[in-house]
Design goal:
With 109 residues, the chain is mostly helical. The protein is built from four helices and no strands.
Length: 109
């Protein structure tokens, strides 16, 4: 939805006002606010930077509704509630347990 994960949003109300040349520089060189330097890093060519700048000036499609009803319908119950453990079954100190989920890969480490 281009609302900005770590930086400012790139919604059409902002991108149209900034203009195409500004966006091309922004995409090519990145920003301190979190935008990678897609052009100077070699990920995108100048033509691809131009195409991306034009693309983000378009209104993004609205995502389909995915409310609680749809979420519950998509759940896959692996262990039914009545079959789940009711007491701790490991030697881990849960008060001192730490895990990290990689943002894009969804992997646990």
């Amino acid at each position: 939805m281009r609302k900005g994960a770590t930086g400012k949003p790139l919604t059409p109300d902002i991108t149209l006002e900034k203009g195409l040349e500004y966006l091309k520089v922004f995409i090519k060189y990145g920003s301190a606010g979190g935008m990678p330097n897609w052009g100077t890093s070699g990920v995108l060519s100048d033509d691809e930077v131009d195409m991306m700048a034009r693309y983000i000036q378009q209104t993004p499609p609205a995502p389909p509704e995915f409310g609680l009803k749809e979420m519950e319908a998509s759940w896959k119950v692996i262990v039914p509630v009545d079959k789940r453990p009711s007491k701790k079954m490991n030697n881990l100190t849960l008060e001192n347990l730490f895990s990290v989920t990689l943002r894009d890969a969804g992997e646990m480490r």
